[in-house]
Design goal:
By secondary structure, the protein is of the alpha+beta class. 34% of the residues lie in helices and 25% in strands. It has four helices and five strands, in the order E-H-H-E-E-E-H-E-H. Strands 1-2-3-4-5 form a five-stranded mixed beta sheet. Strand 3 and strand 4 form a beta hairpin. The termini are far apart. Pfam families: Acetyltransf_1 (PF00583). This is GNAT family N-acetyltransferase. One of its GO terms (molecular function) is acyltransferase activity, transferring groups other than amino-acyl groups. Keywords: Acyltransferase, Transferase.
Length: 157
């Protein structure tokens, strides 16, 4: 079952975010920072929203959606991020169900012009999954500048 996440799911979401960072980048994330970051989404839905997949009464997968305004298209792209499926549930359609829920909601939402996501260059398995779901590789590369870490703010600011 896939549903919008509730505040009570924050602990699972934060744990999955930490696991994802370790699996994909070998990064150990600060527990308090990740927990504050997840909680901030529930406090201010303008920051994003989570969807979770459940089985046997527990969260087994997640995806977060954030928005980006496109002045070229006069509409919003939904970015699908913080994607994680518990290892024992992978290759069983969990992400396909999460993506299907997000895509259906995006298509029903006025002003949404498409979905985007980013993926690690070496994560060929995820790339093939996204292709199977109808997504295509973009012509753009992503660049970033990361600022030094600061203590987490409270979710309200």
């Amino acid at each position: 079952m896939v549903r919008p996440a509730r505040a009570g799911d924050a602990g699972s979401i934060a744990a999955f975010n930490r696991a994802m960072a370790m699996e994909t980048e070998g990064r150990v994330l600060d527990v308090l920072t990740v927990e504050a970051g997840v909680e901030a989404v529930f406090v201010d839905p303008g920051r994003g929203r989570y969807f979770v997949a459940e089985a046997d009464g527990r969260v087994i997968g997640q995806a977060m959606v954030t928005t980006e305004w496109s002045d070229w298209r006069c509409g919003e792209f939904w970015w699908v991020q913080s994607v994680y499926v518990e290892p024992s549930w992978r290759r069983r359609g969990v992400f396909t169900a999460l993506f299907g829920c997000v895509e259906a909601e995006a298509r029903r939402s006025p002003g949404v012009v498409g979905l985007r996501l980013y993926v690690e260059r070496e994560n060929r398995t995820a790339q093939e999954t996204y292709r199977r779901l109808g997504m295509a590789e973009s012509d753009y590369l992503m660049f970033e500048t990361e600022f030094p870490a600061e203590p987490p703010l409270s979710p309200s600011g």
